[in-house]
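Researcher: Structure for this, please.
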Amino acid sequence: MPDADQPAGGTDSANAPHDADARSALVDAARALFASSGYARTTMKGVAAAAGVAPEVARRYYRNKGDLFAAAVRLPTDPASAVPALLAPGIEGLGDRLVRFMLTTLDDPQTRADLLAMMRAGGTAYSSTRALQEYVESTIIDRIVAAVGVPDARMRGALISSYLIGIATGRYAVRIEPLASASDEHVVRMVGPVIQSLLDPRVPLAAPRSESE
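Model: Predicted structure, token format:
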């Protein structure tokens, strides 16, 4: 994952100030657009226009929208690259591993500070949380659900991402007690089985009730 403060490719010292200005403008614009429009509706072209640079300049620094979001909130790890490691041990324990990964990622103080900066840049707590949920769903949850091959994949993916982001928001942003003070492992033990049941194709979802019930 490209670092927010370093160019994606080599550059000479004469270009360094210009590179730093362009990257800073892109990250600032990305925070504002992700916060106001969400992740799904934000485009690389839109961020480039808001930053005052050409789209090809934006792609010089960030390969795709996911890289740009990760830079905007300075995630300590690349979620997309973590998917194979999460899946490698198999279905058993996948819920625990996914919850633990999310807690470790969002427990980073710089990431939490950048998420708050994204809210101040042009959005609300709701829109910024929605942007994070859309990012997590598209880069992690959808890929895991597809690899596992569960039925009702769209509903399960939406439930998993909503559950995880709700836990993260209550724990790190709103700081609801005693959730905020609980250890990571305690949260994993409580939440992991719920996520595991949604990831297990052998566990059916509740069927919708008919109008006559």
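Researcher: Any notable elements?
Model: The two ends are 51 Å apart (CA to CA). The chain is about 70% helix and 0% strand.
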